[in-house]
Amino acid sequence: MIGTLLDITERKREENRLATAATHDSLTGLANRRYFSNELEYAIRVSRESGKPIGVCLCDIDRFKQVNDTHGHTAGDEVIQAFARWLSEGVRRGDLAARWGGDEFCILFPATSAESDGLSVERIRQKLASLRFSAPGGSLFGVTGSFGIAELDAGMSSEDLMESADRSLYAAKQRGRNCLMLSQGNQEADVTTPAHEMHC
Q1: Which residues pair with 189 in a beta bridge?
Q2: What whole-number distance in Å separates Cα of residue 149 and Cα of residue 102?
Q3: Which of 14, 65, 85, 192 is surrounded by the most beta carbons within 10 Å?
Q4: What pLDDT digit, counting tens, does each position of 61-100 carry?
Q5: Distance between CA 37 and CA 50 in Å, rounded?
Q6: 134-147 in b/e burial notation, b at 16+ Cβ within 10 A?
Q7: What DSSP element (H or E) covers 160?
Q8: What's 87-112 look like in SS3?
Q9: Residues 88-121, buried b or exposed e (16+ Cβ, 10 A)?
Q10: CA distance 131 to 34
């Protein structure tokens, strides 16, 4: 009887591990790209039925290759894990943060306005800029992130929405990095809080 119970417990544990591996990123514990894409499709269907807005943020770590080249991949992994933690802690319970790939992440904001999304993301951007990481040898270094937000418009597909967020992210890079750009129609607006007004 005891042997049977142990066998069932181990099998259930392995099933749970495999289920988690299929939907979550192993390094950060965030949702993975496939799971995020499925949830985004569902959120778009709900949005069209309810009329409530949804938004998407794409973001990445500025000059991340330089972090790896200068401080090593272990330090790079620590930066990615810290960024993932602040994404998880900086969004609401109903939002979904995911690792899109490499040092790129995304957030799904269901039933909120782009302005509200921007406030959440701006807090994350400020927090990331305030963090310090240990390099081999004991020195400290900091990183920043660039962020682009887009809101679902009528007739948009999930691919359209992600492309709009990607354009906003690219605009943030072009503007000098460490900022937040919001897609408004066919244009992007900088909604970054000025440094002298930052409250981390």
Answers
A1: 182
A2: 19
A3: 192
A4: 999 999 999 999 999 999 999 999 999 999 998 999 999 9
A5: 20
A6: ebeeeeeeebebbb
A7: helix 158-174
A8: HHHHCCCCCEEEEEECCEEEEEEECC
A9: bebbeeebbbbbbeebbbbbbbbbbebeebbebb
A10: 29
Q: Which pLDDT value is given to residue 5? A: 52
**62 is known as an active-site residue:** no
Which of left, alpha, beta for 180 (phi over 0: left; psi -120 to 50: alpha)? beta
Distance of CA 149 to the CA centre of its chain: 11
Q: How many other C-beta atoms are found inside a 10 Å radius of the C-beta of residue 182?
A: 26
Tell me how far apart the alpha carbons of residues 181 and 165 are, in angstroms, rounded to a whole number.
9
Percent of the chain topping pLDDT 90: 72
Which residue type sits at 6? Answer: L
First to last CA, the chain: 56
Q: Which of 85, 64, 60, 69 is nearest to 136 (CA)?
A: 69
167 pLDDT exceeds 90?
yes
Give the tens place of pLDDT for each residue, 7-52. Answer: 665 666 655 555 556 899 999 999 999 999 999 999 999 999 999 9
Give alpha helix (H) positions in 51-157: 64-71, 73-90, 114-130
Three-class SS state of 159: helix
* Closest C-alpha among 89, 92, 60 to residue 76: 60
Given the residues 60, 62, 95, 103, the one annotated as active site:
103
Spatial distance between the Cα atoms of 162 and 59, rounded to a whole number of angstroms = 11
